[in-house]
Amino acid sequence: MRECRRSLPRGRFDRVSAFNDIRDYVAIPRVLSLRLSPDGSKLISTVQSLNPDGKSYGTALWAVPLDGEPYRLTRSAKGESAAVFTASGDVLFTSARPDPTVKDAGEEVPALWLLPRAGGEARQVATRPGGIGGVRTAGDVVVFVSDVLDGEESAEEEKRKARKEAGISAILHEGYPVRYWDHDLGPGRPRLFAARLGADRLEDVRDLTPDAGDALREGGFELTPDGATVITTWRVYLPKGEWRTELVAIDVATGERRVLLADEAHDFTGPLAISPDGTKLACARDRITGLDVSARSELWIADLATGEGRAYLPDLFPSDVDWAPDSSAVYVAADFQGRRPVFRVPLDGEPARLTEDDASYLGLNPSPDGRWVYALRSAVNLAPAPARIDAATGEIADLPSPAPRPEVPGTLTEVTATADDGTPIRGWLALPEGASAANPAPFVLFIHGGPLGSWNDWQWRWQSWILAQHGYAVLMPDPCMSTGYGQEMIDRGWGNWGPRTQADLDAIVDAALARDDIDSERVAAMGGSFGGYMANWLAGHTDRYKAIVTHASLWNLDQFSGTTDAAMYWQREFGLPGGERYSLLSPHNALDRITTPMLVIHGDKDYRVPIGEALRLWWDLRRTEVDAKFLYFPDENHWILKPGNIIAWYETVLAFLGQHVLGQEWKRPDSVA
């Protein structure tokens, strides 16, 4: 076992303590994004904060000058997002705020607004009956995505009004899928529109993809620097509910479309970035999986004229990418050994790691002069905030942030172990203040979701430091199928979820429990999504844990695989329903061995892991008389997002752990009384 007690450098901003009361925690503002202005003088960020009613979150745009303090740019009840700069430095953003220049504007859907660089009030520049989503701009060209009902575009508004007045919510599907994560698909379908910036509003608005159908579902797009071409993902639907994703190039002037990147064995997806000279595209190439073909993602750089390209960083899953201003290299953020560093990848030459700290980076923004890369910097113990990276040396400087960073209540330690097959397993251990040999801390194993993922970043939803504040040591390991450890780490667990992952978890839990500052008798396990699957698996395959918390978890794999929002993806790994892997790997088959008390948590609007998994698990636990509780959220999805529900989540988890791990008397939390 190895310890690493390096502290991440602190920035030039005040810190706040917000873990004593979960109500204080949910009120912390959160920095979500970062964009650099064309002249490189300032950044703009979307910040999420608690609304005045305390029942919901809202968003606003903040400016982060490179030579001053952050200041707020927008304010409205509906919030603002999707901010991009125009060539002249104005800011385009989307918001469902009402237009003050229009009386009785009708139903509010996200419209496109422009905030002048010189200051003054934002004005609405475009609206669509189905709202406006993502936006890109180059020169005076603007491309945006909007939801459109089938049929004549001129009748769009009337058709939506007629459906509403008739009380029709039904959606007739003739293909797959029908849902995605937390929302229903249809009846409208996304299309791309092109326009030009006018004096007051967008002009010459044109539908670039009238024949798109469902091809633009859950996709991404970028605009070439000259505004002449849109590069977008394009979903190709195949027999038996399958699909693959290609990249196509669309001429903005004519709407003519050509396939740029397509491969029967791969999907081409985001992140997307077009070189400043307009000649090349960087994207992700994802291998289409199968029973014996594991997931693999690599950075792919292709020529925009010919489509010819090749792979870079083949063992790392790219999370974000942007180009150096001279188009000679790309900057890539990718998971690596429990961090997410920035790599510089030259077109001709060897990739090099640019950031050497323990942090994770997203929102890459190289400066126009090539000297700096601006990004959001975070870590398991560090909330996201803007930072500046020296492009030559990798030196890092934190910038003033629109939101204060909370001070974590403890220390972060790196733990390593060796699995039974000789593979190194590592993870982060959050230790509460005061943990020592004389005062060993109770222990919680926290298993990440995915299964492709890594504990390498700050978590607003799965916050281990709240547990640390209440005295628990929290282990966040990266077992098999974790990203950032090479392809072999993913291959080890492919099609062998439960047994292989448990062996990895056992090894690193053994190493953590050998510490004299951890109480090896008072231990619990918890996880969400795939982590919830593993929590269920552990419940039926070991009795070492005093309590298990399972959130949004997979219980009956055969049932799950046909009701999730992307059944085809899971069928590739597990085979046709009823196959051998379902019976070997489904946690429900070990129900008769479960004796550990369990807390089941699920949201009814979860379409990735449908509520049927929790309902079946809860009934199975009741009929076999396992000591269990069910925390049910009728209005939440895969994640618990409403402030009041977040409080209920943590209070219930802490009360459950307190009862079974600490030996406290059960007290129903006030938030769910």
UniProtKB/TrEMBL annotation:
Pfam families: Peptidase_S9 (PF00326). The keyword Hydrolase applies. It comes from the Bacteria. Keywords: Hydrolase. The keyword DNA-binding does not apply. InterPro entries: 6-blade_b-propeller_TolB-like (IPR011042), AB_hydrolase_fold (IPR029058), Peptidase_S9_cat (IPR001375). Residues 458-661 form the Peptidase S9 prolyl oligopeptidase catalytic domain. This is S9 family peptidase. It comes from Nonomuraea composti.
